[in-house]
Amino acid sequence: MNVKTALILLGLALATIFALVCVLLTRGRAPRTCQHLPQQQGDTEDGQSLVFADLTPEEMAQVVRYLQGNLGVPLVDASRAKPSDNCVASVDLQVPAKAEVLRFLDGGGTRPPREALAVLYFGNQPDPNVTEYVVGPLPAPTYHRDVTVQKYGGKVPYHRRPVTGKEYMDINALIQRELKKAPRFLTACCESDGTDLVILTTAPRGFKSGDRTTWFVLFHNVAGTGYYLSPVGLEVLVEHGDLDISRWQLRKVFYNGRYFASPGDLEQEFVAGTLEVVRLKQPQADAGLGSMKPRRPPDSPGPLQFEPKGPRYTIRDNHIIFQDWSIAFGMNPNSGPRLFDIRYRGERIVYELSLQEALALYGSNCPGGMSTRYLDGSFGIGRFAYELVRGLDCPYTATYVDRHYLAESDTPRTNQNSLCIFEHDSALPLRRHFSDSQSFYYGGLRKTTLVIRAISTLINYDYIWDFMFHGSGAVEVRVYATGYISSSFLHGRGTDFGNRVGPHTLGTMHLHHMHYKVDLDVDGQLNSLETQDMEYELIKDPWSMQNTIERPYLRRRRLEREDEAAFPLNAPMPRYLSFTSPNPNKWGHSRSYRIQVISFAGKHLPTSSSMERSVSWGRYQLAVTQRKEEEPTSSSVYNQNDPWTPTVTFADFINNETITNKDLVAWISVGFLHVPHAEDVPNTVTVGNGVGFFLRPYNYFNEDPSVDSPDSVYFSSEQDSGVCGTNPLACLSPDAACAPRLPPFHFGGFLNL
């Protein structure tokens, strides 16, 4: 036998020995598998949730084509339309009436017709106005009906329409022409010819109904960084209400604490040497206040969350199933995220949970800052919910969903990956107990939550909208504010209105208030409102009558009327407030869901203000009213530009009607006062800037429903907690080997701008 043959035989022998060792080492072990779990099957797999589904791009396009062919008037694409044109401003889902939907969902009735709500601006008419049409049935429309008077009690005046992108472009062109009248001043103050300055709108636009006069604040435009922190001290007032753009005028100029009739007057004072000028250098991108570029190279990656056997939730169209939860989701292009038909264990808890409005109200000693009361719904909370960054805005392995909208264009647009859904391990027990008395054991359950998230960028601010669903049957709603602060040029007593955060930058104080609609259906549509709180009573000690004791007791109250159920902002509110069913649980208590508000809102606008009624929802931290189909929203996109005669006035919803055994809606305000400080540069952080509310079961069940969770852990002192069959936590080691193959990172969020 030669050497070559011997080496071959030796190699075969070694391979055989290695294989035998592997067999012996793995004998008795269950084969490890990383197979994904089967998809959960929901109870609405026949597509019932589609009754709430947002319009598809094809449906939007069909509506536009129908309107173009059936209104009998010329329609210009809104992206090019002048104020004197007719155009389709927006198309969205017309949500069917609740009674129709429930007949379909619960009573076996026919599916409601699918319809769209189209908003049109009619500028090319003797009586310019805004008109709303319901168009249907989709996907092939054959009818339209004008619902404007039905909804608002009359026509919507044309001046109330939101400002379009085309209108802003025309305003900017006017400002640029006017700035050319002050060339030497601009060179001295800003090292600029005006073309590299950017304008920021304020709102509302004037002092009375019919006004369309807006202050615009000018900033240095620094590429790749936030211009909001670089004001140059110059602000201009533009009157742009005329249908003829050539008649628009620049009415006033503000600079460094002084007002001028025009840029020409400003230039004259500068040339005469009577104007105090603060000479600013052009900020550099990397050295500017607003730069977000990393200052250190990447370090080792942080923790990564993943599902070893795939997601434990299922998404089909607009419907999510997660453990005992069932949710239909969508996005209104104006008011933002909206959820419908939220069920737990097959029982509807909430019919509608939707964001209504977001208010940002500023203070400053500059005209732009002091007059700003942004109503973000008029800008488009849902429309400007852009693509989410995988691995930062949401977990890398989250499910990302596209949202579609049609606004200011005849062509539908898509915000790809703009809504994310994921299961989140909060690294906190949902419940636990370690027993060190009598018997020794440990029992607990991890707090894992389904999260539905969108993030809206509304000019400078980014709002994170979270809707969370817990294993205990609770719903949590949270909003976080981040992004850039808005600022004014620091002059005079500017620090009465905020803090200095840069050489000439005043971080201006402001408040953020958000409003939500919560249509709870607790064990049926007919609910009442009950409050509970604690009091002390002084009693004689029953076992020692010569002594006394302060005994706490529970004070229960059933609220009968809407006026009783309207709780003013920042006033004391009962600690327990619940929607109750007439039906009891096993222990004889009304099945209920409790509303728990987490907020530290600023002060509401005084009711003496001429524009307060447009935001009158902000008077109340919580108001409960009878649900009415004619009161679908607490605000309107038309309130921003005419807050003096609001199209929708929430305060009128509260008219002391009975709220006993009725279909009720909870309207919830949350918010916070923000006084910007040095640490808000470059961005406001989310830490401490989150508010929201809980909907928590209160005697709705007979026990905590999470006891049925398969994630529960229990082991005693007599058991081996390291055995996988005894303790599921002992199974994590092999599961950890099932790390997923992450998809390549991709971001297309800049493509749709």
Give a quick set of tags describing it.
753 residues, mainly beta, Nuclear Transport Factor 2, Chain: A, Beta-galactosidase, Chain A, domain 5, 26-stranded antiparallel beta sheet, five-stranded antiparallel beta sheet, 9 helices
Give me the secondary-structure topology:
Layout lengths: L2 H24 L30 H14 L15 E9 L3 H8 L9 E8 L6 E8 L6 E4 L1 H5 L3 E2 L7 H15 L3 H8 L6 E5 L11 E8 L10 E9 L9 E7 L2 E3 L2 H10 L40 E4 L2 E4 L2 E8 L3 E9 L2 E16 L4 H4 L2 E3 L23 E9 L5 E25 L1 E20 L2 E10 L4 E9 L3 E3 L8 E5 L2 E4 L1 E11 L5 E16 L2 E16 L6 E3 L7 E9 L5 E9 L21 E7 L35 E13 L15 E9 L14 E4 L15 H5 L17
Antiparallel strand pairs: 1-2, 1-17, 2-3, 3-4, 3-5, 6-7, 7-8, 8-9, 9-10, 11-12, 12-13, 13-14, 14-15, 15-16, 15-25, 17-18, 18-19, 19-20, 19-34, 20-21, 21-33, 22-24, 23-24, 25-32, 26-27, 26-29, 26-32, 28-31, 29-30, 30-33, 31-32
Proportion of beta-strand residues? 35-45%
Mean pLDDT: 93
Distance between the termini: 77 Å
Number of helices: 9
Reported by name, the CATH topology of the domain at 352-381 and 428-531 and 557-698 is Beta-galactosidase, Chain A, domain 5
What would you call the structural class?
mainly beta
CATH architecture of the domain at 352-381 and 428-531 and 557-698: Distorted Sandwich
Biggest sheet record: 26 strands, antiparallel
Q: Please, what is the CATH homologous superfamily of the domain at 352-381 and 428-531 and 557-698?
A: Copper amine oxidase, catalytic domain
Number of strands: 34
